[in-house]
Every structure is written in structure tokens, then in C-alpha cells.
Recover the amino acids of this structure.
């Protein structure tokens, strides 16, 4: 995508603004972002279901943004995958090949091959109403990939499934995609889904791409405070302050160490909840952030402590803790675990 924009309502609604993105051959690329940020519109432009207001879209060297969906060799699977109810699973899967005029013997072969890949051989003779939700979703995936599309587009395909099935289908989809080595663009607002499946994730907000990175880098090096505040559950804690000589003065008595000085005066210091410690005693460091414990939630895998620091809530994830609500506590962290953002919210160090 080269500088692709999409406007609706005579320009009043900016669904996408200057998207620049290159998806590699065989890559699993995820569009991740909050509701209304423009993920679906971006996907529909790749599919050919929307025309860009501006910019260019290429498949390899072939410019496709003026082409009909049928001329792009893409397959798209939606959240509300509609199977033809009066056709069997076999007929549903076979349908795209029939349309293409492929002879019956080859159709049979490809249906068998695709059904095996998706583990629905046993269901081929059933009607869609007679099979489970997961099997229906597998059928719609089979119908999409049987044409051997050059690009596979998926828009929240798992959101209608229950939690257990969603997890199962997540790893199946990932397996399928890497077995077929098919270039895939996947839309979701679910971070876990994005992180577990994506080779790279394009994080979107208000029609623009904020960062494109692999899951590890996105978590470890969010380039802006917006991304830092979006990725992670709970997300990164951000402390605003005035930076001078290697320390950041927060309002009140709190002073934080930072790694690198910057020219900018107002900065934000970011620390992941799991990189913070919470103590009822005075810490051994010569600095700490003071606050009052609001809640302590034992979540099994870890304990989530929520601390009120001058009216702002800070999340801390610890393996165990003896702190209790309403207690005065000290929060500390290793300076190398902190991120420094400038006054514009851009990562400095
Ligand atoms: P969600 O996760 O809720 O599906 P999204 O990130 O996929 O959201 P889009 O559906 O791409 O977002 O919508 C982006 C913006 O464009 C929204 O403000 C939406 O209202 C607007 N929009 C999308 N399609 C149209 C349309 N056909 N006409 C007018 N506005 C539209």
C-alpha cells in the first residue's frame, strides 16, 4: 500500500489516512486497533470491495487498486461467514471451483485435499445446520482457500466462536497459513490473537498506522506513548514529569532516574506493570514513587496491585505480595526497564 487514503461522506469521515505498508510473501500480517480505527476499510481496499480515495495498491508489481475483486485472486473470510444453507459442506467448499469451470475429477481431488487439511473429511456430506460452529468456520476457511488465492484476507473470523474454540482455531489457522505459505492479512481488535498469530502487527489508530513490528518488538519497544498505552494487559504505566540531568521530577516529591537525558523538558517515563515492585517498607533505592494501595487482585498466575499515585492509577504485577488496600507503599523499578518518551510522546530511549 502506497500512501493509501479512504474518505467517506464527501471527505467528512477519514477512514484511512496515508497508509504505507509492505506485506512480505507468505507473511501473516495483522491489523490491530480499537473499534472504528479503519482496519476493515483497509482490508476491503486490498480485497477490492472499496476503492481508495488516494494512493496505490500493488500485488507484487501489479497495480490492483483499479481492478475488480474477481481479478485480484484474493479470498476473504468475514466474521459472519455465510455458508449456503441448502448445500452440503462438500458443495459449499466445491462451489468456487464450479464457478471457475474446473472439471469434476479435479474438483473432487481438491475438495478431499482441502477437507483433510481442515479436518472436516467426516462432515463433507452434512448440511451446515448439522455441524458445530467450529466446523462451520473450518468449512468457510476451506471454501476460501480451495481456489489457492494469492492473498488470504480475514476480518475477525474467530469472534463468533466461544473462548475454547477460538483458542483451538487460532493455532489451527496459524498452522494452515504456514503450511500453505499464503500471504495473509488478518483484522482483529484482540491483542492476544494478534500477538499469538501475527508475524508482524500493524497497530492502527484513527485511520493511521502507528507502528509495524513483530509481536516481541511491539511489546518491548513501543515507539509512542499511544502504542505503549494500547499494548499489554494492563498496559504500560506512564509517568509525566520534567526531565533534567538524568532524572525526571514528577509533581510532588517523586523523582525518577532515567537512562538518557533528552533535550525536551516535558517527558513521560513508561514502566511495564511486571517490571515494577511494590513494598510496604522503605525501599533500598534512594528514590521511590509513593502511593496508596487501591486494590489487590490475586489472579492465579500473578497478583495485580492497583496503586493510587496522586490521583493516577498505577498497575503492578507481582508473583506474590503482602501489601493490602489503603496501605501506604513505595513503587520502584530498575532504570533499565524504563522507557523515556519526549513531550510529543515519541520514544527517546
Ligand atoms: P471495527 O473494529 O469496529 O469493525 P474498524 O477498525 O474495522 O472498526 P472501519 O470499519 O474500517 O473500522 O471504519 C473506519 C471509519 O470509517 C469509521 O469511522 C466508520 O464509521 C467509517 N466508515 C466505514 N465504512 C463506511 C461507509 N461505507 N460509509 C461511511 N463511513 C464509513
Amino acid at each position: 500500500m502506497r500512501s493509501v487514503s479512504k474518505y467517506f461522506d464527501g471527505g467528512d469521515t477519514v477512514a484511512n489516512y496515508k497508509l504505507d505498508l509492505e506485506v512480505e510473501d507468505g507473511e501473516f500480517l495483522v491489523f490491530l486497533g480499537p473499534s472504528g480505527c479503519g482496519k476493515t476499510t483497509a482490508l476491503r481496499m486490498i480485497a477490492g470491495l472499496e476503492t481508495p480515495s488516494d494512493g496505490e495498491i500493488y500485488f507484487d508489481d501489479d497495480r490492483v487498486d483499479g481492478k475488480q475483486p474477481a481479478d485480484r485472486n484474493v479470498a476473504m473470510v468475514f466474521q459472519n461467514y455465510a455458508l449456503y444453507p441448502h448445500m452440503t459442506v462438500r458443495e459449499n467448499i466445491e462451489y468456487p471451483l464450479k464457478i471457475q469451470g474446473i472439471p469434476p475429477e479435479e474438483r473432487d481431488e481438491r475438495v478431499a485435499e482441502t477437507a483433510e487439511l481442515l479436518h472436516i473429511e467426516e462432515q463433507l456430506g452434512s448440511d451446515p445446520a448439522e455441524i458445530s460452529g467450529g466446523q462451520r468456520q473450518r468449512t468457510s476457511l476451506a471454501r476460501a482457500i480451495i481456489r489457492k488465492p494469492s492473498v488470504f484476507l480475514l476480518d475477525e473470523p474467530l469472534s463468533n466462536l466461544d473462548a475454547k474454540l477460538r483458542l483451538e482455531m487460532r493455532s489451527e489457522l496459524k498452522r494452515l497459513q504456514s503450511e500453505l505459505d499464503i500471504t495473509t492479512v488478518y483484522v482483529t481488535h484482540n491483542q492476544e490473537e494478534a500477538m499469538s498469530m501475527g508475524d508482524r502487527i500493524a497497530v492502527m489508530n484513527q485511520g493511521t498506522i502507528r507502528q509495524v513490528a513483530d509481536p516481541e518488538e511491539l511489546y518491548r519497544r513501543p515507539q509512542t506513548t499511544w502504542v505503549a498505552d494500547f499494548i499489554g494487559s494492563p498496559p504500560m504505566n506512564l509517568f509525566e514529569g520534567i526531565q533534567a540531568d538524568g532524572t525526571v521530577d514528577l509533581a510532588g516529591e517523586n523523582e525518577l532516574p532515567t537512562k538518557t537525558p533528552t533535550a525536551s523538558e516535558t517527558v513521560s517515563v513508561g514502566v511495564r506493570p511486571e517490571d515494577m515492585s511494590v513494598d510496604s517498607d522503605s525501599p533500598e533505592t534512594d528514590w521511590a514513587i509513593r502511593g496508596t494501595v487501591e486494590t489487590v487482585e490475586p489472579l492465579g498466575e500473578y497478583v495485580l496491585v492497583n496503586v493510587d499515585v496522586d490521583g493516577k492509577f498505577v498497575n503492578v504485577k507481582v508473583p506474590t505480595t503482602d501489601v493490602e488496600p489503603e496501605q501506604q507503599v513505595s513503587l520502584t523499578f530498575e532504570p533499565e526497564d524504563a522507557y523515556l518518551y519526549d513531550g510529543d510522546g515519541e520514544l527517546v530511549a
User: Anything to note?
Assistant: The CA atoms of residues 25 and 183 lie 5 Å apart. The longest helix spans residues 163-180.
